[in-house]
Amino acid sequence: MNGLRLSLLAGASALACLASGAAAQDATTTDNQVEDIVVTAQKREQRLQDVPMAVSALSASDLIDRNQTKVEDYFRSIPGLALSPLANGRYNLSIRGVTTGVSTSPTVGVTIDDVPYGSVSILGFGSRFFPNLDPSDLQRIEVLRGPQGTLYGASSLGGLLKYVTQDPSTTRFSGRVQADLSTIEDGGVGGGLRGAINVPLVEDKLALRASGFYRRDGGYVDDPAQGRKDVDRADVYGGRLSLLWNIAPGATLKLAALYQKISGDGSNQIDTDSRLRETVGDLAHKSQIGTGAYSNRTQFYSANLNIDLGGGVDFGSVTGYSINDYRMIADPSASYGPYAALVYPVTGAAMPFGFRTSKISQELRLSSSGPLLDWLVGGFFTKEKSTDYFIAYGADVTTGAYAGVLFDEVDEFHYRELAAFGDVTVHIAPRFDLQLGARYSGNRQRYHSLIAIPQPVQFLFGPTTDFRERSSDNAFTYVISPSFKVTPDILAYARISSGYRPGGPNAGDFDASTPRAYKADRTTNYEIGIKGSAFGRMLTFDLAAYKLDWKNIQLAFHDQNTGFLFLKNASAAVSKGVEGSFELRPSQGLSISGNASINDAKLTADLPAAGSFGKKGDVLPNVPKFSATVSAEQSFPISGGLDAFLGGSVSHVSGRRVEFPNSAAEVRVRLPAYTVGDVRVGVRDDHKSLTAFVSNIGNSRGALFSGPLGSRAFAASPFYKLVVQPRTFGLTAAYDF
């Protein structure tokens, strides 16, 4: 491994020497103007600077070139986006501080090519899993900040993460191959292969695009008690097929199928005390033998039909079907080991569990653009089914052998939704527009939970339960957004928008105080912003200030006897902030960009004391008050169209508080601020590139998340944390044809 690191460093040094004696020339542009970015945030193509809301767009090719293949690599590039990684391939996202933790339904919607992905409910684990797609066949990732309830519906309380894939081309044969290799300091080796090919089958009529990849994510967390190193390594592979058919003039059909699987050997949790001091060793944990392995499988199928009906009216149909399948063997010893010891001759525990969500959706819409107004109307239907199982065993701490069942739970959740929506932009004057939109939706849900409790442990968890519940609700959301072109290149806007998260049946009937169902919660966002370009498009920028009110919050509670989860509505919160980004190209070959977010998200009313504790004024969990990233890159011409480049970035994230505790006696951990820097150097031309990089160059151990290992969070309890991946050296080579 040392030899590999020396080779990588030697390659980086050689490339740096190559870059140091060259003059300026940008490899991707012919001048120092910032290129236009086209997005589909409002379900039609627009320049990013013309969209009257806060939107960020990340180029997928840039992410690959920088070896930023997972959301934990790039989330700091998006103002207002916060990440709570939960280990073993699980994540929770929040935007603009709209979160009360990882144990409620999602507050950020996720779509792939406008098809909603994942469950809308905690009963389908929607807040803990999202596809985290490898960017190998993506065009870009868009993040819409602020509620998106009108065009995107349920669960977009704080915003939306939108994957946009590459379309096949009917005019040109092309492809790309790429290989990368990396090594983590005091950790494992990683790397990957990616390939894509585009084949016009019938010129201007029919084309096929195929892509595939394999990636090894190196590990860096050890389990010394088991003599295992780098247990958190993972293998990721997948591919995508897409077919584009120009059926007739003005009529296009795109079919796509995507598959991705992640398989991991263990957890990247690091054992700590309540002050985040490591208790087992540097980057280490102690786990029950036989636990930690997991897999997450994503399948996604879509059909997008677009027809020009004439008279300036377009028809669109978006059909999607997805499957999200997760399996894991967890280590709940800190929670259930003491229970197991009361009944069985063991002190450890193991919990195989899994879930599967299948989801189908259909959206139909009509749209038109004209000199007086742009309009869109549509209807939406979705149906999802989620199933899961949890089996808790007592386990021998030395052999891992199961000694007896503590409980065996099987759940099934069904969700159906119908919605109608509309959006119109009136061009009141040559430079003044007014956007109005609304959505009405209704849903029906049903839930069945069977928890089998063996006779020897019924005195701990109660008798076997067979619980069934149904619920239904509806929601109205809206948007009002006037905008004004200060100049042809600068847009000022105001925006009032709303979002909602569906209510639903609860996960059990634990006692008289547990509601059998909980209600929807809602956000209302008040925002003003300005965006555009200046100095001959040498500079692009966006700046937004907002206040977001959150009412009737869905809160997670834990039954005080069993630790089982249920939800209630209570309290209110407000999130206020300022966020922005810029890109500057002051001279040929030099690009400087950055983003920053200042956020104050806090409760405006006390939480109930029993089961979820927080006071008015307490900050919402896992949300930094300040975060910022600055990046720069300089390119230099060498000869024959070959350029060298040198770039880097620095990100800072301020301190955060973790989840609300169950009671005033429990600890609420504070995550300290951290700073991460990356550098890269390489050569490229129109067809090929070679890049050497160092990620986390300062080897920061910034904590991304923390929680108790058991069901209670007292100072004497064992805790864990997850940290930024340690310093990583790597090489990436790519060829386009």
Automatic annotation (TrEMBL):
The keyword Transport applies. Residues 1-24 form the signal peptide. It is found in: Cell outer membrane. It is a multi-pass membrane protein. Residues 252-697 form the TonB-dependent receptor-like beta-barrel domain. InterPro entries: Beta-barrel_TonB (IPR000531), Beta-barrel_TonB_sf (IPR036942), Plug_dom (IPR012910), TonB-dep_rcpt-like (IPR039426). The keyword Membrane applies. SUPFAM superfamilies: Porins. Residues 48-159 form the TonB-dependent receptor plug domain. Belongs to the TonB-dependent receptor family. This is TonB-dependent receptor. It comes from Sphingomonas colocasiae. The lineage of its organism: Bacteria, Pseudomonadati, Pseudomonadota, Alphaproteobacteria, Sphingomonadales.
